[in-house]
């Protein structure tokens, strides 16, 4: 196991918790949908710059991707929006624990049945 990858993932989880808390507070001032939009606009700008300088893939290949794979973007939008709504109501800890339990439960099912090309312990 690559220790650096685990450390970076841990840092990502830490940042995600901070984002949930901060976005929850921001949503009280500007609204939940507006907060989600601001997050995605900022992310789009950042990733666009990153892609320009470091991208090595083929963004135009998106036209050949199956529709079911493209639908996954809505899951990310939904997750962000739900954490913005849930964080202020049940707390960041409860929201993250519920999300993690959902992730683990879904990952076992996805791996067990090989959905989306997943494989158990691959």
Describe this structure in words.
The chain has one domain. Helix content is 79%, strand content 0%. The chain contains five helices and no strands. Helix 1 runs antiparallel to helix 2 (32-54), helix 2 crosses helix 4 and helix 4 runs antiparallel to helix 5 (92-113). The two termini are 13 Å apart. The model has no long low-confidence stretch (mean pLDDT 89).
Task: Draw up the topology in text.
Elements: H1 3-30, H2 32-54, H3 67-70, H4 72-90, H5 92-113
Helix pairs in contact: 1-2, 1-4, 2-4, 4-5
Let me know the average pLDDT. Answer: 89
Helicity range: over 70%
Gyration radius (Cα, Å) is 17 Å
Order of helices and strands: HHHHH
The outline comes out as globular
Count of alpha and pi helical runs: 5
Structural class computed from helices and strand pairing:
mainly alpha
> Major β-sheet, in short?
none
Which band does the percent of strand residues land in?
under 5%
Which regions are unreliable across 5 or more consecutive residues at pLDDT < 50? none
Distance between the termini: 13 Å
In total, how many beta strands? 0
Q: What is the domain tally?
A: 1
What are the salient characteristics of this protein?
122 residues, 79% helix, globular, 5 helices, mainly alpha
Quick structural overview:
By secondary structure, the chain is mainly alpha-helical. 79% of the residues lie in helices and 0% in strands.
């Amino acid at each position: 196991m690559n220790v650096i990858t685990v450390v970076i993932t841990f840092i990502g989880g830490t940042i995600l918790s901070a984002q949930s808390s901060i976005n929850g507070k921001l949503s009280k001032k500007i609204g939940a949908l507006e907060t989600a939009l601001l997050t995605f606009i900022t992310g789009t700008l950042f990733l666009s710059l990153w892609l320009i300088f470091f991208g090595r893939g083929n963004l135009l290949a998106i036209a050949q991707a199956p529709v079911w794979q493209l639908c996954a973007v809505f899951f990310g939008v939904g997750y962000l929006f739900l954490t913005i709504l849930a964080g202020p109501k049940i707390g960041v800890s409860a929201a993250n624990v519920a999300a993690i339990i959902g992730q683990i439960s879904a990952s076992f099912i996805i791996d067990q049945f090989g959905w989306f090309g997943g494989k158990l312990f691959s």
